[in-house]
Amino acid sequence: MESGKKRSWAEPFKIKMVEPLKMTTREYRQKCMEDAGYNTFLLKSEDVYIDLLTDSGTSAMSDRQWAGLMLGDEAYAGSRNFYHLEDAVREFYSYKHVVPTHQGRGAEHILSRIMIKDGDYVPGNMYFTTTRLHQELAGGKFVDVIIDEAHDPNSRHPFKGDVDFEKLEDLRKKVGREKIPYVCIATCVNMAGGQPISMANLKKLREWSKEHDIPVIHDATRVAENAYFIKVREEGYKDKSIAEIVYEICSLTDGCTMSAKKDPMVNIGGFLAVNDEELFNKARNMVVIYEGLHTYGGMAGRDMEALAIGIEESVQFDHIRARVGQVEYLGQKLLDEKIPIVVPVGGHAVFLNAREFLPHIDQDQFPAQSLAAEIFVESGVRSMERGNVSKGRNPETGENYRPALELVRLTIPRRVYTQAHMDVTAEGIIDVYQKRDKIKGLKFVYEPAYLRFFQARFEKIG
Predict the structure, then answer these.
(1) Catalytic annotation, pick one of 13, 26, 44, 76
(2) What are the DSSP E strand ranges found in 30-112?
(3) Is residue 1 very low, low, confident or very high in pLDDT (cuts 50, 70, 90)?
(4) Could you confirm whether 253 is annotated as catalytic?
């Protein structure tokens, strides 16, 4: 590149097949949103123009992954695709033993059942919805030990996923080592805005865990994205490959749960991976009860083959640079127009700061939920709430948790949309921002007992 000259960026792939999108009117989308109870999860996908609800299972598989589907060995026991997956996990993630599951929450369920007992406490660098629920259903209580900067959407801390060791030590001293079955660590923390954890922090956590004989379990869903941030932000890693950094991250932990529908870009699948032989035997015994035989665990052979290939592709530098770069591109478009978002921009999504976007709406009137609905009506872009609705209620008081972060997540599927789609998304959000004072809050008309954000229904207040 010539000195001082900035060149345009383009996706590192070409398009082989297209899926036509339905173009709709504002009036049509308003009716769709009313029918969906102002919950973007209840919209029909065919009515969505640009779908940024989630990156879970929505990415575009490569030609190699599609070819891998044709190599599916659908044997009930001992599928060769399982052994290919096992080899990939050992090569790229370092873990010795693999138990496939239908998706990440299947792994969370099995892990929680075999490691958590009633009255336990599970510290982690911010909660994730399904992870916390499985921990609670097993009798445990999640305790947030992430640094304070993670709860500040305007903090520019480069590693907002880091563990606060003063919080971690306070918990250990309060409840005792025997009440802490493991420390739960997510890479690129979703609920904090896709924020990474540093390698230095992980190394310090490894030392702490060895000192107190407490395992570290890794939510590896977005480990490749985290590795990219370590490469570009942390001293000593700029010359290391993404694959090397991913391997080092995993080697500092004792096991992982993986929703393979994210980084490895498959439409369904996940696994639990551990190093401990006894834990592995318990897990593969449990998977037979809830998922399937231990060599398929709820996945078809063809899906395990696509996953094994996707693990390899996920650590390719050109891919991950473009993946994170597209998220950063959308984030910068919004920052240029003074739209309040979580900074630094995360690895998988841009998070709108709904509390600053809609300061006139009380948090118990769900400003993030309201904003997500308004964005769809205005532009046809589907996003999702990550705030008071997602966090749920305090089981002791029945009050909403009212978290510090009240966010709308614009989640970018991998290899699906172009730069032009990001431009259209930004323009729609800017239009909503210009008339934000007219947006009203919401109230529940139906509230599920668990994970209410998936199926709740609302109506406008006033």
Answers:
(1) 76
(2) 50-51, 97-101
(3) very low
(4) no
